[in-house]
Design goal:
globular; single chain
Length: 205
């Protein structure tokens, strides 16, 4: 089993732990949905739900994306926890972002706003990779695909998702007063820097 793939836990798959992760993910999304409905109506409800489902899934993605390089570089108890749980973290992100997709579909249906071809292709590929990574995040699929091919799939998927988040937040981050988006962009760049540092560290060996 590859120890470098982003959605891998590094330990035997534990369904009881996964159930807890998925329950918390569903609960967080339900809270966001209830708050959106209670504070707005019609189109603005879908806008809020879309916005905040993305915001709760983004830090979960960062945890999965950062787990391996942080532990390899720092080797602290909290990085060991991230590495141990990164498969469950990744699957929770997949669930949350699929819920985000449902909110997006509701927004576009309600608003009647056309979807650009770039958004459709770029976003469609992102969700295709999310589903593909989720479906292959089992020890059986690692064995079936082979650790090298499986690792490549997950690395490509995670890097592509990082790029999608980066380009989505960059424009807002450059506008005055959007500190939260600036933090998002810096966080992505910091994790990419950690991954590059780990890559060159391993190359020197």
């Amino acid at each position: 089993m590859s120890q470098s793939a982003p959605f891998s836990s590094g330990v035997a798959f534990a369904p009881e732990y996964l159930r807890s992760w998925l329950f918390l993910s569903l609960f967080a999304s339900a809270v966001v949905a209830s708050w959106s409905v209670g504070t707005s109506s019609d189109l603005s409800t879908w806008q809020l739900w879309t916005r905040y489902t993305a915001r709760i899934s983004f830090p979960i993605f960062l945890m999965a994306y950062a787990a391996r390089p942080l532990h390899a570089l720092l080797a602290q108890p909290w990085t060991a926890w991230l590495r141990k749980n990164r498969r469950n973290i990744g699957l929770s992100f997949a669930l949350l972002h699929i819920i985000h997709l449902a909110a997006l579909v509701g927004f576009f249906i309600t608003s009647g706003e056309p979807i650009s071809l770039v958004t459709l292709i770029g976003g469609g590929l992102a969700y295709f990779l999310i589903v593909l990574m989720a479906l292959t995040s089992t020890d059986a699929m690692i064995k079936k695909l082979g650790p090298v091919s499986w690792r490549r799939l997950h690395l490509v998927g995670m890097h592509y998702l990082a790029f999608i988040f980066f380009q989505s937040y960059l424009g807002a981050a450059l506008q005055p007063g959007n500190l939260i988006f600036f933090v998002h962009v810096v966080a992505i760049l910091a994790i990419v820097a950690c991954r590059m540092a780990l890559f060159f560290k391993m190359r020197r060996r």
